[in-house]
Amino acid sequence: MSRLSPFVAIRRDLHKIPELGFQEFKTQQYLLDYIHTLPQERLEIKTWKTGIFVKVRGTAPRKTIGYRADMDGLPITEETNLPYCSEHEGNMHACGHDIHMSIALGVLTHFASHPIKDDLLFIFQPAEEGPGGARPMLESEIMKTWKPDMIVALHIAPEYPVGTIATKEGLLFANTSELFIDLKGKGGHAAFPHLANDMVVAACSLVTQLQSIVSRNVDPLDSAVITVGKISGGTVQNAIAERARLEGTIRTLSVESMNKVKERIEAIVKGIEIGYQCEATIDYGSMYHQVYNDEKLTAEFMQFVEQLPDVHVVRCKEAMTGEDFGYMLAEIPGFMFWLGVDSPYGLHHAKLTPDERAIDKAIALLTSYMTWKGNE
Ligand SMILES: CC(=O)N[C@@H](CCC[C@H](N)C(=O)O)C(=O)O
């Protein structure tokens, strides 16, 4: 029987302890315990909230290459039945951040004992799923002193086979905004609807009306998404609901479309207030800047990877996913790419099961790329 790769074992450990944004205490401790086992001569380690910065001092630095991995899990109950499934009831690494962290540790492990000319900065970032750790981390004093000259990150892609990486120059991921709408009407007995203002009916109507925005208000040659992922309201089957809440997200390929979509949401919500005689409040939660890949660095990376054995490069289309790494790319040239992990279930699914062979492949690929880039 073949031995488990150390970084697959690390991934499994991390997979058991998914924590939500800015609560990644055990995850941070796990990473720190591991990082402290590495040769320390060239390392400088600083914590920031539940995140970590690790600098690897180069032998003759002219620039700093940044590498970012996100750390948080999602409030999803895992249904994989894996022997190493989540031990944190109700939370799951359903977006691959456990894989992202184990890959980052693999690359860091290599460079801790095989330094290159340039400095490297490994960024373990909390709260990617929300409320967003990239922006405050970017504004931190540590980042001001250690700001890299270029930066790279990856995201697992269930739809591609292991050995495939996919990316493109320019726009890769959408602009995002969370969306929370609270409705307050008048509750009452289920048998006397004429004496109440039913917020379950208002919420259902609102969800349906929101669907008209993408089909009727956004240019068909542009793209936008409004997803209501959670709806709650009411107390019991035979009482009319006084309150209802919609929780969702908006995705657009431009800031202009985001503003337009929000204008339309506000108009529709006003209509609901009038039509259903209720009070409504809208909260846009956290918003993420689009992920825009630096043209030159991305093209160069794709060319570099193409000549590696066993790696297939795909020039993909942009996706409506969001990533607060977009804030880092708005200030630092760099790129993000998809890493094929071949899972029959997609991102944010309770049965996501990435193929772990992608971990060592990604470590090898990133190690080669950074060695080349950091010795240029
Ligand atoms: C890669 C990925 O799945 N990212 C998340 C980012 C979520 C941002 C925020 N919580 C929102 O929902 O708008 C995504 O859902 O795309």
TrEMBL record:
It catalyses: N-acetyl-(2S,6S)-2,6-diaminopimelate + H2O = (2S,6S)-2,6-diaminopimelate + acetate. The keyword 4Fe-4S does not apply. Transmembrane segments: none annotated. One of its GO terms (biological process) is lysine biosynthetic process via diaminopimelate. Pathway: Amino-acid biosynthesis; L-lysine biosynthesis via DAP pathway; LL-2,6-diaminopimelate from (S)-tetrahydrodipicolinate (acetylase route): step 3/3. Mn(2+) binds at residues 95, 97, 129, 155, 348. It holds the Pfam family Peptidase_M20. Signal peptide: none annotated. It comes from the Bacteria. The Mn(2+) ion enhances activity. Residues 181-270 form the Peptidase M20 dimerisation domain. Coiled coil: none annotated. InterPro entries: AcetylDAP_deacetylase, Amidohydrolase, Bact_exopeptidase_dim_dom, Peptidase_M20, Peptidase_M20_dimer. Its EC number is 3.5.1.47. Its cofactor is Mn(2+). GO terms for molecular function: metal ion binding; N-acetyldiaminopimelate deacetylase activity. Keywords: Amino-acid biosynthesis, Diaminopimelate biosynthesis, Hydrolase, Lysine biosynthesis, Manganese, Metal-binding. The active site is at residues 70, 129. Catalyzes the conversion of N-acetyl-diaminopimelate to diaminopimelate and acetate. Belongs to the peptidase M20A family. N-acetyldiaminopimelate deacetylase subfamily. This is N-acetyldiaminopimelate deacetylase. It comes from Thermaerobacillus caldiproteolyticus.
